[in-house]
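Lab notebook page, bench 4
Experiment: in silico fold of construct C2
Operator: M.H.
Input chain length: 405 residues
Purpose: comparison with the prior construct
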Amino acid sequence: MPDDITEAAFRADALAFLEANAEPRRDVTLAWGEGSDSVNLLTEKTPEEEQAELVEAKAWKATEYDAGFSFITGPAQYGGRELPGSFARAYDAVKAGFRTPSESPFSIGLGMVAPTILAHATEDVKQRYLKKLWRGDIVACQLFSEPVAGSDLAGLQTRATRDGDEWIVNGQKVWTSGAQFSEIGEIICRTDPDLPKHKGLTGFVVDMHAPGVDVRPLRQMTGGASFNEVFFTDVRIPDDHRLGDVNQGWTVALTTLMNERASIGAGGGGGGGGGLTRILQLARWLGRTDDPVDRQALADLYIHMTVARYTNQRGLERIKSGQLPGPEMSTAKLSLTQNYQRMAAVLSTLLGPRLVADTGEWGTYAWSELVLGVPGMRVAGGTDEVMRNIVGERVLGLPKEPAAN
């Protein structure tokens, strides 16, 4: 049963908890040229920095959970408090006023994998992992993309063959964020190659430390290694770690993908307010704010980002109220990448050659890291082309795109 607590009392408890365990956030607007000029989409960390962030994040998540401020809306039998979505929003609002450790190591596990486990896993798996995920005791990754399949998830080739009460997995996954520090992963495998490609898939929860799992970092053109390729060689998965029915993995995958697109699309419409503020500061510093063409481009970027932010918020409110994310979240993801493209175009116009040649000027060449990250965002969570097909066919009801001969 849910806690017998009013929202006002809950908010007061949340404030007391945060005051005792975190520092108040003091927003400081830096003048142009002050502080770091780093701007990026994918924060590049050294392995040492990454490990330090993970340790701090796990400690914070455990503190938060033990105080009753994690998995606020979750079922009580899996460690949740069963409170309405308005309580989770209230906690987020109070928390926004405090500086807390980064929770990025948990974004995939809690935003995508945990909801899928809750919807499709066996009772044993729910009991075994949900509390640990929400408490930060373990981290989870998503194992969908493959070198050949890409955004055509139904075309994946990683095989799972049944062997009694176990499945033997062989294949390769790619672009896997957080695989290097994850304890478990959600994997979709082909279990019947004779069925149509959408029909012969099955989902599993796999132990990322099991014999035969090999995680290898991938170096990006931005210089970091935020992603991995993961090889599976005769990896054994118990049948009770299966997600949903055999050969019904497409439904499982859709649950994860809709949550993924909701998570990616929640980025504020592209760049967030901080990125737009920095671009406006750049335009003023360059003396371009009186140019009518530049002013129009900046206004266009502001309008699109604002509309996307409000549109995304409506979808997120539905999810927080307990509804499953639908295909409309593909619109959120598509608007995000389109706004990043608009941002890159504005920056290219404002900076010209200073975007590709480092002149040593603060706040100029640093933008190259963001621009180089935009192509990756157009692929993450489904390509722009796939998103357009989903919006056209499943949201607008347009005819399906003709199949390739």
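Observations: The chain has a mean pLDDT of 87. The beta strands are 23-24, 98-99, 140-143, 159-163, 166-173, 184-190, 201-207, 213-218, 227-238, 242-243.
Next step: discuss at group meeting.
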